[in-house]
Amino acid sequence: MIKYLDFEKPVAELDAKIDEMKAMAAKGDAVSIGEDIARLESKSEQSLRAIYTALTPWQKTLVARHQNRPHFSDYCAGLITDFTVMAGDRGFGDDEAIIGGLGRFEGQPVCIMGQEKGSSTETRLKHNFGMAKPEGYRKSIRLMELADRFGLPVICFVDTPGAFPGIEAEERGQAEAIARSTEACLALGTPNVSVVIGEGGSGGAVAIATANRVLMLEHAVYSVISPEGAASILWRDATRAQDAATGMKITAQDLLRFGVIDRIISEPSGGAHRAPAEAITRTGHAISSALGELAGLSPDQIREQRAEKFLAIGRRLP
C-alpha cells in the first residue's frame, strides 16, 4: 500500500474514490461504472504527473526519503546476478549500513556496494538507517582495492542521511575512514559509477560517490548537510528546512547544471516508489551506458578523467 505524502492529498482522494467504486463493482452494487472508474483513473494520473512536474526541493527531499522507495538491496537483486557478500573491514568488524561484494552486471564481473537503509523497523535498526560507521567505509576501501587488483568495475549505490555521528564512530576515526574511502575512489584504475538513489548525505555519500560517472535519480537529493541541519545552523530553527532546501540547490536538476553529477535518471510517474521495478530497470540501463563510455580506457586514463571531473566542479558555473 502506497503511503501518500502531504502534497499528494488530491491524488489520495481520487484514488480512495476509485478504490471505493471498484469495491462496489466487485460486489455487484453498481450496474456499470467502468467508464467512471476509467475517467477518475485518468484524472488521478494527470494530477500526479502535474504535481511531480513541479516539485519543490523540499518535496523532492520527502520523496527521496519515502519508505517505499527501492533501496540498495532491491537494486542489487534486480540488476546483479551471482552476488556474493563480502563482510568486515579486517580490522574491527562488519558494518551492515554498507553492503558490498562481487557479482555480475549484465554478465560482466563487477564489485558492487551501497548503503542500505532497511525497509522495516527491524531491518532499519540492523542497517542503522544507512548511516555507516568507520568500519563500513574501511570495508568499502577493502572492496575497492580488491576490485582494482582484479580489474573489476565498481558500482556504488548512494542512499544515506550521512555518516553515523555517534561518539563511538568518532573514537574509531570516522573522518579518517571517510577521507581514505574517498581517496580509494580516486585511486581506482578501473571504471567506477555511483548512483544517488535516495539521499546523498554529506561525506557519508561522497566516500563512495567519487566516481568517473555520478548518476542521480530524478527525485533524489544530494547535499553537504540535511535541510533540517542547515536550518538549525543558519536560523537556529529546524522548521525552516523548506527554506534551506531551496537555497542549498540539492536537486538533481541543480546539480547537473553545476556539473556535480553527470546524468539524471528519469523516474516513473509519481516517483520510484510507485514503480520500483521500472525504476530499477531504468537505472540498470543508465549504469550500462556509463560503463560503456569508459570501456577501453587505460588505468591512467581512468584516473585522469575522474580527477579532471572533480577538479572542474565549480569552474563551469551556468
Top keywords for this entry?
single chain; 318 residues; alpha/beta; 2-enoyl-CoA Hydratase, Chain A, domain 1; 2 domains; eight-stranded mixed sheet; 8 strands; 16% strand
Give a description of the structure:
With 318 residues, this protein is of the alpha/beta class. The protein folds into two domains: 6-54; 61-311, Alpha-Beta Complex (2-enoyl-CoA Hydratase, Chain A, domain 1). It has 14 helices and eight strands. Strands 1, 2, 3, 4, 5, 6, 7 and 8 form an eight-stranded mixed beta sheet that branches. It is globular, with a radius of gyration of 21 Å. The mean pLDDT is 92.
What would you give as the CATH superfamily of the largest domain?
2-enoyl-CoA Hydratase, Chain A, domain 1
Assembly type of the chains comes to single chain
Shape: globular
- β-strand percent reads 15-25%
CATH topology of the largest domain: 2-enoyl-CoA Hydratase, Chain A, domain 1
**Biggest sheet record:** 8 strands, mixed
Which architecture of the largest domain would the CATH scheme give at its second level? Alpha-Beta Complex
List the total number of helices.
Answer: 14
